[in-house]
Amino acid sequence: MTISSRDRVRRTFDRQAVDRMPIDLGAHFSTGISAFAYARLREYLGLADKPIRIIDPVQFLAHVDDDVLERFSCDVRILRAPWAATRPWTPRDGRSFQIPAAMDPQLQADGSWTVARNSQTMRMPAGGYFFDGGWPSFEDRPWAVQAAALRTEAERLRATGSAVFLMQSVWAFFSDNPEWLMRAAEDPEAMAAENAKRCDEAIAHVGRLIDLLGDQVDIIDMNADLGAQKAPMIGPKLYQQVSFPFVKRVIDFIHANSDWKVFMHSCGAICPLIPFLADAGVDALNPVQISANGMDPQVLKQRFGKRLVFWGGGCNTQQVLGTGTPDEVRVNVRQLVGTLGADGGMVFTAVHNIMGDVPPQNIVAMYDQALVSGRELAAVPA
Predict the structure, then answer these.
(1) Cα end-to-end distance, the chain, whole Å
(2) Helix %, strand %, coil % of the chain (to 5)
(3) How far is residue 58's CA from residue 62's CA, in Å, rounded to a whole number?
(4) Which H or E element spans position 277?
(5) 176/266 Cα distance (integer angstroms)
(6) Is 234 left (phi over 0), alpha (psi -120 to 50) or beta?
(7) Tens digits of per-residue pLDDT, 320-359?
């Protein structure tokens, strides 16, 4: 059985048989690749030297080109309105990247680069791979102009036969900002009232997107980093009061008005909160940070494998991908896919982005093993 990429992804959500596990690289800002690692990967693969477009200026992620997606048998394409204009920037080593024209990095005396825009400032240290600090927007176009660009890009992506992932980062009514956490703990009723207003705004925005894009899209994301490395940042009872009802309202609206699936990105040790995400109607959980406390992949699969698709968890980025050998990477992928992907319900990608210093050999080992293991799983009767 051979099916299209889009059908492969949709059948995975519906727990139907597939010819192999779907694969993702770069469909979301937490499943992507550092532009520095991407440049070395293209060279290692012997692919054409072409401009590397930056899709996320803060994390400095590359837009993954079709030749790389095809090399790794990827099934998902990211939908973002292209920048209105770009310009080249060469941070070091003679390597130039295409950044949004509104971004103006300034070299500092210590070798770092800073960007200041709309009261937000971010900094890339000398020799660094991404920016820290604020998250300035580099999009100045009116919504009508952005919408037209989104629609055109969606139609192009739909023609590829891939699943289309609308990267809009719908806020999930939670912030890891200490001030927000303190306010929620001190006055949960006021925070719930504030989130209720934001919920109305979120539903109106998502409604515009559904009207605009309709059946051109398969997945949309919500984002809230609920966990740190050792524990959730918010207790289950407080989360249930101040966040859960509004996450559910938005997801219910999406499901009632489209056939889009909802991808929830939340890093960290979030196992105590996953039942709420499942009850809210989340379809896929990312990044499945198996290196965090309480995130044992066998436990996650046993408890939530029938309710959620694991979009991630395919390779340990903290302890294996960047520091292990290619053989160690292959072993790690084989083990994690065998656990989280058993009986279906997994879209392969690493635990969060591929960082700037990851060797290209390890990236190739990871994706090649994912394809092999994904086919092996599909051949095993459920």
Answers:
(1) 16
(2) 40, 20, 40
(3) 11
(4) helix 274-280
(5) 11
(6) beta
(7) 999 999 999 999 999 999 999 999 999 999 999 999 999 9
Cα–Cα dist 35/61, whole Å: 5
Rounded Cα gap, residues 54 and 38, in angstroms: 11
Tokens of 316: 């340990």
pLDDT of 378:
85
Nearest 5°: the CA angle 216, 198, 173 is 85
- Please state the domain extents for the chain: 5-86+138-378
Strands 309-311 and 346-347: parallel
Among left, alpha and beta (phi > 0; psi -120 to 50; other), residue 313 is left
Residue type at position 7: D
Sign of the CA dihedral with 204 first, then 210, 212, and 218 last: positive
Burial 172-210 (b: 16+ CB within 10 A, else e): bbbbeeeebbebbeeebeebbebbeeebeebbeebeebb
Residue type, 263: F
The helix-helix angle for 244-257 and 188-213 (nearest 10°) equals: 20
- Looking at residue 236, what DSSP letter applies? H
Provide the sign of the torsion angle of the four alpha carbons 32, 300, 306, 261, taken in this order: negative
pLDDT of residue 379: 77
Beta carbons within 8 Å of 238's beta carbon, 6+ residues apart: 184, 185, 188
Instruction: Describe the strand order of the beta sheet including 219-223 as a list of residue ranges.
Output: 76-79, 163-171, 219-223, 261-265, 284-286, 309-311, 346-347
d(CA 192, CA 282) in angstroms, rounded, equals 20
- The Cα–Cα gap between 266 and 270 comes to 8
pTM of the predicted model over 0.85: yes
Ranges of H-type helices in 46-172: 66-71, 143-158
Dig out the tokens for 169 from the structure.
């980062």
Average pLDDT over residues 20-45: 98
Classify domain 5-86+138-378 by CATH number.
Answer: 3.20.20.210
CA 366 – CA 331 distance, rounded (Å): 9
